[in-house]
Amino acid sequence: MSDASPSNFTPAPLDSSKRTWLIASTCAGAAGTVALATPFVTSFAPSEKAKAAGAAVEVDISGLKPGEKLTVEWRGKPVWVMRRTPEQLATLAKVDAELADPKSQRNAFPTPEYARNEQRARQEHPEVLVLVGICTHLGCSPGDKFTPGAQPSLPDDWQGGFFCACHGSTFDLSGRVFKNKPAPDNLEVPPYMYLADNKLLIGEDKKA
């Protein structure tokens, strides 16, 4: 009677082709898990290798409606692109006296020359705002507070803008910081340029 007990059973070794297939399948499964955990990554461009190298990012804003904002990633940072309404642009002059640096003259986060204006934007499209979405205090990401009027943690005459819940810094709809807030500077405007009316290149400004 042959001995077929499990303790004496030795499986045949896998050949190299089967071993390679198993490794690839395992890796693919792990990648799928990561994708489920972080679905937002799929909306970012360009590739991971290009981002690590600091490549410029092309952004199509043809579908961005007035009052809407989208987020892309550049050099590992979230970058906001917002198309402001005429009503939102009209609020900017109303808050100049309340801002710490209304003309974007401070140099800790230098503002490109073409964005040193009230809109903090290129003048061919002053309604389009491009900002790095990181608070200049300790690196939190401010939230959208576009609705004007009194709200918790905001002044009664709030005109709309951004609020950093970490330490209470407030920014107007051009990313300019209000006086007497923890954030020392306006939100950063990255270098950017237009490839077409509805296509931005974030990370380069050769037309500056």
| Beta-strand content estimate | 15-25%
CATH third-tier fold name of the largest domain: Rieske Iron-sulfur Protein
Q: Would you count the extended β strands for me?
A: 9
The CATH architecture of the largest domain can be given as 3-layer Sandwich
Biggest sheet character? 3 strands, antiparallel
How many discrete structural domains? 2
Query: How many H/I helices?
Result: 3
Structural class: alpha+beta
CATH class of the largest domain: Mainly Beta
In short:
The chain is α+β, with helices and mostly antiparallel strands and 208 residues long. It has helices at residues 16-37, 48-52, 86-90; strands spanning 57-60, 69-74, 77-83, 128-132, 143-145, 161-163, 170-171, 192-196, 199-202. It contains three helices and nine strands.
